[in-house]
Each structure stands twice: as structure tokens, then as C-alpha cells.
């Protein structure tokens, strides 16, 4: 039987897109406490089924997949620009295709006005009406209001009419930043992208006998299975090591490993990989917020996913991407040497190279050096940094890495950074290689 939390989530998912919901309304409709309703609504928001907007409330929205994650909904625009919704609240869930800045004459603007977009404009009442009738949402900058007739039109057409105190340039910058951040998120692989769904997952119940494990092992050739209860919640995991020497009539719950490590669908593949390597785990159960089994991921799936990401062209650049692009390999024969230019975005508020960037430079250099010796994936296990002198903005630093030890499983590197021949930083790096099993 479904829990109250699951019942609320199911109820929310069945609501019409654009429907406004509240904690009190959910609690009354399903006869649950307001605390239970609040937690379920927050979970639905995390899953992308609802969106909360200041001064508007929480509305049911259409969940976006990774194919259109770079497109924003009008609800997200309201939050990005700290806006106030003047009209058309029922259309906040809609996705906008593009935005147009209306800093031009009306005749020229009409060439860019089309349905599904967002017009960013000042206090031009006639333009507001024309854009709405063309199927565009309107964002009024400078904190200006709109005519009552325009607000009524927005409500009739269910197209958002939004006001913000920011100027046009700031608004455009904020929206571009939001789209750019979404692009970066689109590139990050999550467990949900690679999990083997529950329909294709082999599992055992706690009251199954050890003999059932042997039957499944002969059938599937797998040696690890999640163990669940009657509500599909993960209770443990059972492996070949657990059943060695056990009587076939013993119950699985007597031999299984309890409280196993699990991951959520929103966990990044990189984080899952680190946990699997660190703990020596071949298979991880994937669960939802109430510990219900959704599927599993294996080490082989994780490796394939990480290698696929490395082969994809980058769309949204992260700080790691910028560091990778600015790092120049100046190595000669057995002498490893790299150069790096300190740009403004790599500095802290004092104008010196930030600690976080130095850490990223060290790990990037270490990865490059080790990949020359041994191709494959690796996980950084430990970084020790010693700052000796600050590095000013627009300086060029030289990085000299030295491999101290490299084995089948581990690599240890000593790294020194120089500015004008003077040591400014020393680092010690330990990594663990990811092997295929």
C-alpha cells in the first residue's frame, strides 16, 4: 500500500498543468497533516513537478526533460528577475522559446514578435498589448506598472505579464546567466540517466531462502542483489560472500548486509563513482526519498557514462573547463612543465589567485600527468596544499609536477608552482585509478 507521501505525490502529478496548490489545500483534500503535505510538495518541487513563486504561490508545471532543460518557464523568469506578476498567472507554467528586447521602433519590433517568446520592454502600453495579442509574454523593466486593460488581456490570454525593478541590461544578463547555468546542468550526468530500472532489476525479499539466491545466480550470473521488504523499500544487499557456507534454507535477511550504501536519482554519476571506488562496491541500489527501490547502477555503467561525457563537446563552460583551456603543456622529454595565466575570474576579492582555483589547477595537472603514464579514469582521493606567497591577477605561473609513485591502484604526485622563478605553492596529490572488474 502506498504511503501518505506517495499518495500526495501521485495526487500532485495528476493535477492539471497550471493548477495552483497549497499546503492547506493538499492537507484538507487528502486528510493528512500540513507537515506531511509540506514535505511532499517540496519533494515534488525538487522533482520538477511544481514551482514556487514569491507573491504568487506554488503551481503545477510541466516537468522538463534534459532535451529542453535550457529553456526557461515564465515562472523561472519571475524568480530570476525578482519579478511581480501583474497578470496571466495561469500561463506561468509555459516554456518560452526566446526573449526579445524591445528597444526599437514598433515597426522594427514587429519582425521579432511571435508566439511563445518573452518581450522585455519598458513602460510602452501599446507594445504590451500588441505582444500579448501575438502570443508573447511581457516583462516590464524599470519597476513600471501596466494599464488595467492590459492586465485583463493577459489574464484572458493566459500569458504572463511581469514587472521587475531591474533595468533591461540587467534583466537580459540575469536571464542569459540562468540559461547558461541550465546548459551546464544539462551536461552533468545523474544516476537517473544510467540506472537499470526496477522492471529490469533482479532483487530478493528478506524472507526468501538462500536457495533462491543460488537459483537467481544460475539464471542471471549476477552475484549481488538488493534485498527489499513488501513495500519495495531497501533493507540490505546480499552478495556471494554473504552466502558462502550458509544453509540453503536460511532466510536472506539473516545473511544480508544491512543498511547498504544507496544513491538517489539526482546524485551525480561522478559522486556515485567516487563512493563506489572508495568503498569497493560493484553495485548500488537507487532509491527515492522514502527508500523505495527504483533500480540499480553498476560500476560498468558508471565507467561507460564517465567515458561518454569526456567524449562529448562542451556547451556550457564551468570553471574546470576554463582552467583546462588555459593550461598550456610546455613539457620537454622527461621534464613535465605547465603554464597558467591568472585571469580576473580566477581571483578572490583581494585580486589574488583563489584557493579553489589552485586546487582545481593541481587536480587538472595531476590528471594530465598520470594519463600520460596510464590511460583510464581516476578519482582524486586527497589534495594537500601549501600556500607560500599570493599570486596577483594577470600573472603567469609555471607548474612542475613530479610523479612520486604509481601502482595499479594508486598514483602520488608532488606539484610545485612558480612565479618569476619563486615557489608560490606546493601540493601533494593522491589519486585512485578506476579498474574494470
UniProtKB/TrEMBL annotation:
Pfam families: 4HBT, CBS, DRTGG. Residues 195-254, 256-314 form the CBS domain. Keywords: CBS domain. Transmembrane segments: none annotated. Gene3D superfamilies: CBS-domain (3.10.580.10), Hotdog Thioesterase (3.10.129.10), HprK N-terminal domain-like (3.40.1390.20), Winged helix-like DNA-binding domain superfamily/Winged helix DNA-binding domain (1.10.10.10). The keyword Translocase does not apply. CDD domains: CBS_pair_DRTGG_assoc, hot_dog. PROSITE patterns: CBS (PS51371). InterPro entries: CBS_dom, CBS_dom_sf, Diverse_CBS-Domain, DRTGG, HotDog_dom_sf, Ser_kin/Pase_Hpr-like_N_sf, Thioestr_dom, WH-like_DNA-bd_sf. SUPFAM superfamilies: CBS-domain pair (SSF54631), HprK N-terminal domain-like (SSF75138), Thioesterase/thiol ester dehydrase-isomerase (SSF54637), Winged helix' DNA-binding domain (SSF46785). It comes from the Bacteria. This is Transcriptional regulator.
Amino acid at each position: 500500500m502506498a504511503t501518505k507521501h506517495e499518495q500526495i505525490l501521485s495526487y500532485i502529478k495528476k493535477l492539471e498543468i497550471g493548477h495552483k496548490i497549497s499546503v492547506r489545500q493538499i492537507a484538507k483534500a487528502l486528510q493528512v497533516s500540513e507537515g506531511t503535505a509540506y514535505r511532499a510538495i517540496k519533494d515534488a518541487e525538487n522533482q520538477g513537478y511544481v514551482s514556487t513563486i514569491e507573491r504568487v504561490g506554488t503551481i503545477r508545471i510541466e516537468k522538463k526533460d534534459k532535451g529542453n532543460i535550457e529553456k526557461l518557464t515564465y515562472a523561472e523568469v519571475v524568480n530570476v528577475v525578482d519579478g511581480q506578476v501583474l497578470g496571466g498567472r495561469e500561463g506561468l507554467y509555459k516554456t518560452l522559446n526566446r526573449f526579445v528586447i524591445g528597444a526599437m521602433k514598433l515597426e522594427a519590433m514587429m519582425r521579432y514578435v511571435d508566439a511563445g517568446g518573452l518581450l522585455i520592454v519598458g513602460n510602452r502600453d501599446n507594445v504590451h498589448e500588441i505582444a500579448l495579442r501575438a502570443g508573447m509574454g511581457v516583462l516590464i523593466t524599470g519597476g513600471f506598472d501596466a494599464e488595467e486593460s492590459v492586465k485583463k488581456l493577459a489574464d484572458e490570454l493566459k500569458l504572463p505579464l511581469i514587472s521587475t525593478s531591474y533595468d533591461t541590461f540587467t534583466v537580459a544578463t540575469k536571464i542569459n546567466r540562468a540559461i547558461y547555468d541550465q546548459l551546464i546542468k544539462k551536461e552533468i550526468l545523474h544516476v537517473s540517466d544510467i540506472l537499470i530500472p526496477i522492471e529490469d532489476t533482479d532483487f530478493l525479499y528478506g524472507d526468501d531462502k538462500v536457495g533462491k539466491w543460488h537459483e537467481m545466480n544460475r539464471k542471471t550470473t549476477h552475484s549481488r542483489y538488493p534485498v527489499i521488504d513488501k513495500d519495495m523499500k531497501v533493507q540490505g544487499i546480499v552478495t556471494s560472500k554473504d552466502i558462502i557456507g550458509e544453509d540453503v534454507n536460511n532466510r536472506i535477511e539473516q545473511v544480508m548486509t544491512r543498511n547498504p550504501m544507496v544513491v538517489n536519482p539526482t546524485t551525480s554519476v561522478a559522486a556515485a563513482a567516487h563512493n563506489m571506488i572508495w568503498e569497493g562496491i560493484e553495485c548500488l541500489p537507487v532509491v527515492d526519498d522514502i527508500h523505495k527501490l527504483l533500480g540499480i547502477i553498476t560500476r560498468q555503467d558508471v565507467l561507460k557514462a564517465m567515458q561518454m561525457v569526456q567524449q562529448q563537446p562542451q556547451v556550457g563552460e564551468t570553471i574546470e573547463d576554463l582552467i583546462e583551456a588555459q593550461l598550456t603543456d610546455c613539457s620537454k622529454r622527461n621534464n613535465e612543465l605547465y603554464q597558467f595565466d591568472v585571469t580576473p575570474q580566477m581571483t578572490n576579492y583581494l585580486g589574488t589567485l583563489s584557493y579553489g582555483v589552485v586546487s582545481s589547477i593541481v587536480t587538472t595537472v595531476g590528471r594530465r600527468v598520470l594519463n600520460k603514464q596510464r590511460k583510464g579514469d581516476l578519482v582524486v582521493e586527497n589534495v594537500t596544499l601549501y600556500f607560500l606567497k599570493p599570486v596577483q591577477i594577470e600573472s603567469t605561473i609555471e607548474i612542475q609536477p613530479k610523479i612520486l609513485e604509481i601502482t595499479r591502484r594508486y598514483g602520488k604526485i608532488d606539484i610545485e608552482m612558480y612565479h618569476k622563478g619563486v615557489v608560490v605553492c606546493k601540493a601533494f596529490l593522491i589519486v585512485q585509478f578506476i579498474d574494470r572488474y
